[in-house]
Amino acid sequence: MCGRHHSQFLKLRRELLLFIKAEMSSVVATAVDYGVTILLTEGLGIYYALSNLVGCVSGGVTNCCINLKYVFGNSGRKKKYVALRYLCVWALSILLNSTGTWLFTELSGFNYIIVKMIVGVAVGIIVNYPGQKLWVFRKVSDAGADGAGGAWLGDDTFSEEQPISNKEINE
């Protein structure tokens, strides 16, 4: 019984550390996102909705790079498939963040920065973290024997019979 509890504790600890690392990556990406958005809007006078879109793109690229290198690590699929999967989750995130920020700013009359924060936190918790953890950066072996999640975008790239070389992973 004690071994079982210890195992559950270790699993919970790993999950918590992964979440903390992902959130730290998100904080850095958010700083880039907000910095670009505010610089473009306040410094250059660009319409906030367009600045927000450019900020989202800048933050998204930052987040993907940090997550791949430091948070989730090597999933066992080629980087181009990781990038395509990230692009899918990211596109949804950009759509929700941009539309949500614009819609709630226009409807509420609140400052776009405050609205952007609220919308960003909601999208991050509901879409970004689960999408990245469970689909974008999920290890190939975690897909199960049937490749659950679809055979497109890299689930069928490798099998147990094919050893994965560093060259293949980095393509």
Walk me through this protein's architecture.
With 171 residues, the chain is mostly helical. The chain is built from 5 helices and no strands. Helix 1 runs antiparallel to helix 2 (48-71), helix 2 (48-71) packs antiparallel against helix 3 (79-108) and helix 3 (79-108) packs antiparallel against helix 4 (112-136). The longest helix is centred in the first third of the chain and has 42 residues, at 2-43. Mean pLDDT is 82; it is low at 144-149 and 156-166.
Main attributes?
5 helices; 171 residues; mainly alpha
- Report on the biggest sheet: none
Indicate the mean pLDDT: 82
C-alpha-based Rg, rounded: 19 Å
- Overall shape: it is elongated
Query: Would you count the extended β strands for me?
Result: 0
Residue fraction in strands: under 5%
Contiguous low-pLDDT stretches (5 residues minimum) are: 144-149, 156-166
Helix/strand-derived category reads mainly alpha
Can you summarize this structure?
The chain is mainly alpha-helical and about 170 residues long. The chain contains five helices and no strands.
Topology record:
Layout: H1 2-43, H2 48-71, H3 79-108, H4 112-136, H5 166-169
Helix pairs in contact: 1-2, 2-3, 3-4
